[in-house]
Amino acid sequence: MKVFLLMIACFVPMVALADGEAEYKYREGIMNSAKGHISSMGAILKGQVHMDNLQIHADGMVDVAGIMPDVFPAGSQTAKSEALDAVWDDAAAFKEAMDKFVSASNGMAAAAKTGEMGEIGPAIQALGGSCKGCHDDFRQEH
Ligand code: ASC
Asked: Fewer CB within 10 Å, N or C, the chain?
C-alpha cells in the first residue's frame, strides 16, 4: 500500500501545470528520448557494443519522430523553452524540417535492418543531420 501511494505521488503533481508549461515539459521529455536514442546508437556504432540493440533504438526513434511534429502546439512557447518563434511563425519550413527527421528516422530503421555498415553509416549521418538542421533554424540554446 505504501509503495502504491508513493507511485501515485510521483505521477500526480499537487498543482496542475498551465497547458503551455505541460506541453513544454512533455516536449522536453520527447526531445530527451530522441537524444537518448541517437546517443545510444552512436555509442553502439563507435564502441561496437550491443550491436543487437541498434534496431531497438532505430525503431524507438521512428516512434519518437512520429510524435515530434505534434508536440509544438500553439501556446506552448514558455520562458524555459528553447524553441524559436520561427517554429510557429514559419510553420511551412518547420514542417519541412520535421518531415526530414521523420524520413531520416525511417531510413535509419531500414538501414539497421540490413545490418550493413555501408547502409548504416550514411543513414545515421543523415539522421544526425536532420536533428542539427532543425536545431540550427528552430532552437536557441539558453
Ligand atoms: C545528438 C543530439 C542532437 C544531435 C545533433 C546531431 O546526440 O542531442 O541534437 O545528436 O547534435 O548533429
From this structure: N
* Pocket lining: 69 vs ligand 1, CB cutoff 6 Å: no
The x, y and z cell numbers of residue 115, run together, are 545490418
The owner of cell 524559436 is 84
* Residue whose C-alpha cell reads 544526425 in the numeric block: 128
Q: Compute, in angstroms, the gap from residue 36 CA to the centroid of ligand 1.
A: 10
From 108, 132, 140, give the residue whose CB has the most ligand 1 atoms within 8 Å, as the site to mutate: 132
What's the longest Cα–Cα distance across the chain?
53
Distance (Å) from CA 6 to ligand 1 centroid: 35
What structural domains does the chain harbor?
A: 2-138 (1.20.120.10)
